Task: inverse folding
């Protein structure tokens, strides 16, 4: 069976997560890497034993994954569109970058995704939308499904998906960070507090199942008039739900704003 060429452009956090995930399941793919930074290419070589180069050549088959910062993406497309053959599948995980904006530069098949960094562990969530029917180059089946759970959405839902899924790990990391700080403020040393929270986070996935809601999981932990209920009541009194909703609204609006900025430039 012919292997699929995967070209990853931009080797920052997300690009590196793609490399990690695909390196775990590299059967059936050829991996090509690109980054302008000499230092980044050196780090990738040391970490993955894969040579990266500074720029794409002319590419006439496979998939190009554009892991480029939103503020740089339009300039990149303008300067490199002639290097991308018409049969190339363009995969964009760029926050705020709509398919219609990419189509101003190229007329290729395009799939827009919004993964999070958990794809590096092959258990991410990958929402997608495309401008074509079916599974072009079997990219969804052969690649995305190997990196995590995959689901198609309307593109209009991508701003909120970006806020709760793409940024999702940061919300849990920040909560964990504040729990660590709370333990420290109440007498634990920082190493002890960090260790306790990390052990909790590592064990949590074992308790999550598809037929169990998070509300049920909360109810399973608390008991009437117990310590957990006391803390949860405090969160409720301090409008924890509104704090979270406000954060997600702000992140969602920023995604909308980026889309407008990219479309109007």
Result:
């Amino acid at each position: 069976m012919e292997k699929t060429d995967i070209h990853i452009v931009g080797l920052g956090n997300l690009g590196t997560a793609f490399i990690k995930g695909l390196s775990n399941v590299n059967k059936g793919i050829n991996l090509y890497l690109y980054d302008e930074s000499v230092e980044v290419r050196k780090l990738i070589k040391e970490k993955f034993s894969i040579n990266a180069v500074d720029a794409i050549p002319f590419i006439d088959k496979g998939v190009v994954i554009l892991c480029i910062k939103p503020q740089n993406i339009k300039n990149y497309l303008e300067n490199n569109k002639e290097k991308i053959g018409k049969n190339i599948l363009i995969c964009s995980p760029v926050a705020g970058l709509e398919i219609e904006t990419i189509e101003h530069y190229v007329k290729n098949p395009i799939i827009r995704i919004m993964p999070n960094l958990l794809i590096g562990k092959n258990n991410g969530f990958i929402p997608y939308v495309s401008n074509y029917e079916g599974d072009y180059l079997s990219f969804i089946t052969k690649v995305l499904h190997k990196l995590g759970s995959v689901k198609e959405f309307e593109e209009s839902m991508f701003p909120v998906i970006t806020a709760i899924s793409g940024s999702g790990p940061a919300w849990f990391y920040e909560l964990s960070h504040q729990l660590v700080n709370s333990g420290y403020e109440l007498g634990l040393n920082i190493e002890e507090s960090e260790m306790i929270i990390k052990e909790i986070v590592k064990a949590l996935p074992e308790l999550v199942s598809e037929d169990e809601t998070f509300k049920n999981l909360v109810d399973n932990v608390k008991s009437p008039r117990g310590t957990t209920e006391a803390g949860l009541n405090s969160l409720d009194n301090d409008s924890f739900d509104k704090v979270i909703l406000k954060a997600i609204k702000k992140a969602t609006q920023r995604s909308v704003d980026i889309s407008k900025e990219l479309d109007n430039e």
